[in-house]
Batch of 2 targets.
Target 1
Amino acid sequence: MTRASDTLDVSRAEERRTQSTLASIFDLLLEGYPKRDFLVRVDDRALREPSDGAARYGLVFRTPETVRRMFMSPSERSFGEAYIEGDFEIEGDLNAVFPLVDYLRERSLSILQNLRMLRLLRSLPRQSAPPLGRRAPRLPGEPHSKERDRKAVTYHYDLPAAFYALWLDPQMVYSCAYFESEESSLAEAQERKLDRICRKLRLEKDQRFLDIGCGWGGLLMFAARRYGVRALGVTLSQVQADFARAAIERAGLKDRCEVRVTDYRDLDQWGQFDRLASVGMFEHVGAKKLEVYFQRAFRLLRPGGLFLNHGVAFCSDDPANRPSFSEGKNSFFGTYVFPDGELVPLSVTTQAAERSGFEVRDVESMREHYALTLRQFQSRLNARRDEALKLVNEATFRIWNLYLAAAIHEFVSARLTIYQVLLAKTDNGAVGLPLVRAL
């Protein structure tokens, strides 16, 4: 007959073994990392404390199984999924964790270290994984086919518009703002960005203006109200289109603005335009479709017209300097944030544009501006967390919070950047731009 005290002794011994195993795992993982400004806790037990007692952040694992699942086949996706389910928590300053993320990403264990890590992880107790609160989209068909692009885009943008309205500016502009100073408000910086786009395009009254990927209609309405253009905006999101149409009607701009749910490859029926813009849509096109994209834009533009293409890019063509966002099935951000999203360096973009007939007239990097924009997005989102959770579930909120924090780090670290490229379709060499660059 087994006594209760014997069972308790066995349980305590197993617990001590588990704690020892976990300590060995984190000693191996963090070996050589110089900073001691964070804590590590598993199942409410501290395994690592900051050297001065003041932690900037804490890595909190709900159970030993969380550790086993995250590090058995470590990937961006395994870490992200544990975080969005609350199995893995970052307490304190979420943004402070990314130097450690970079260290772990770049560190390479020896064969012997990998074998030891595998043995330690396999000895941890097992538990079933929690269900995900936001499912990854099913994207059938060829990447960047029309139907697949529609499903990928709507997965991100078809959340309630009220969710985005909590943390975007009043004009619902979901792209890089343009800051006069770090003290500028988001609303001021977004209006300055919209006006900068319009002035780069030299918009004039009654010109036909096409906004490819118009979102909730911010640029469309600004250009019509401030510069008097006749504007068509296209999006793949019915939710965005409905919001934009209602906003256009409230603003009394129905005679100048129209929004359609249409793929950029299906716009020939609307004829040619004097000016084109694409702001924050380019990332969804796909590297293999760049020339298709620019050829369609070239065909839609009248001779002498201008096209402003605004999009995120890799800072370098060197894969070693790419962001920590992985590709393929192990990509968290490519699965739960921007399915099928693809980035390329500026050189690839301009070559595709030039091969399609465009002349590159102006290029502006806005990397620092996007870091400031993303910080404001994240701050505003977290300030209205309770309201956000009435519109989306906890997992969705955590996805967006993690995405914004990671993106801030990548822009600050100069792995990602963003460019506005002004392209011209010359009319027998003529473009009509002024001799000086000043706006």
Note: Residues 146-424 form a domain with the Rossmann fold fold (CATH 3.40.50.150).
Target 2
Amino acid sequence: MLSMSDLNPESAVVQSVVDEKKEKMIEYIRALKTIEDAMEPYKEQRRELRQEFKEQGWLDKEEIRVAVKAYRLLKGNVDIDQLISIYDSLHRAARGNS
């Protein structure tokens, strides 16, 4: 019995590329799962750290959020003066005070 690839060689090439892509996606997902599984204990530690600071009354939820945002900005080498300028412009525009 003849298959579609026997009738159309281009179709066989396309199918080969599709099969290769599927295999690479499966490989990627497996690697991603391995990494995420390895990260889980650290995520749990982060949750526990956040909870401890709340329970001890050292920081509330909003203060923790602001601290994390500040950390991410520092880590990302964000130009704080530019950020403030853009934030102020957006804030004024949102309030209708261009």
Note: The chain has two domains: 8-58, 60-98.
